[in-house]
Amino acid sequence: MDSHGRTPLATLQARVIACRRCPRLVAHREEVARHPPRRFLGERYWARPLPGFGDARARLLVVGLAPAAHGGNRTGRMFTGDQSGLWLFRALFEAGFASQAESVRRGDGLVLTGAYVSAAARCAPPLNKLTPEEKERCRPYLVEEMRILAPRVLVALGAIAWDACLRARADAGLAHASPKPRFGHLAEARSADGAVLLGSYHPSQQNTFTGKLTRGMLAAVFARARRLL
User: Fold this and answer.
1) Which of 3, 29, 79, 221 is 20 to 30 A away from residue 127, measured at CA?
2) Domain contains 69
3) Does 3 fall in a domain?
4) In this structure, is residue 54 part of a structural domain?
5) Mean pLDDT of 47-52
6) Which helix (DSSP H) or strand (DSSP E) does residue 198 occupy?
7) pLDDT confidence tier of residue 1, bands split at 50, 70 and 90
8) Are 56 and 7 contacting, i.e. CB atoms less than 8 angstroms apart?
9) How many domains, in total, are found in the chain?
10) Is the pLDDT score of 175 beyond 90?
């Protein structure tokens, strides 16, 4: 517990929310909130970095790219309020990690059991693209989550998340075997402590609309995660 009576995970979450390390991302997330599209007019945007969300005793850590400008940046919860989240939480629900299949807003009753959802970056980036410097500044938060949670299985949603997980694991002293494991859908990489990193295509509309990722393919990732656990 810290001086405020918070657990290490709650302390980390508070630090994430207060972060202003990346001026470009700060400006973008706040500009988006000031000028929302018509469908979200009148809504009060979160417009701050997003902490991870889920079970503090999770053995499964799910890592995405970054909050969506009108998804998590609006609702204040990872993968909440956008189409990617609807795909992700339905898959988590079907695998027994989530209490419901939809993630619409904070306070909607969604509870994760045995799973925690995080991201490589905590602020919505312009055009969903991060600079190398922004990735570096944000990675310590993921490193700390890994140290606190000590997950047995990690699911990386997309190549950027895969790389962020490998780098964060190395920073936490839990490097995977050399050469660097290659990303792919249902790719697996096991580290020295026995934890397994699973790869999945990101449930972005770019992938789901084109059929690169189907619901069955995403379900297979979390079914595999469940078996590994």
Assistant:
1) 221
2) yes
3) no
4) yes
5) 97
6) strand 196-200
7) low
8) yes
9) 1
10) no
Residue 181 identity (one-letter amino acid):
P
User: Cα separation of 164 and 159, whole Å?
Assistant: 9
At 125, which CATH number? 3.40.470.10
Report the DSSP beta bridge partners of residue 184. none
Q: What does the pLDDT read at residue 214?
A: 98
- Residue 225 has, within 13 A of its CA and on its CB side, a CA count of 31
Q: What angle do CA 165, 51, 80 make, to 5 degrees?
A: 95
Query: For the chain, what's the residue count?
Result: 229
Decide if pLDDT at 217 tops 90.
Answer: yes
pLDDT tops 70 at residue 177: no
pTM metric for this prediction: 0.95
**E strand residue ranges, 20-170:** 53-54, 60-64, 115-119, 153-157
* Residue 2 within any structural domain of the chain: no
Query: For the residues of 87-121, what is the DSSP string, one character each?
Result: HHHHHHHHTTSBSSS---STTS---BSSEEEEES-
213 pLDDT exceeds 80?
Answer: yes
Residue 223, CA distances (Å) to 48, 73, 101, 113 in order: 33, 29, 15, 15
Judge contact between 110 and 93, C-beta under 8 A: no
151 pLDDT more than 80: yes
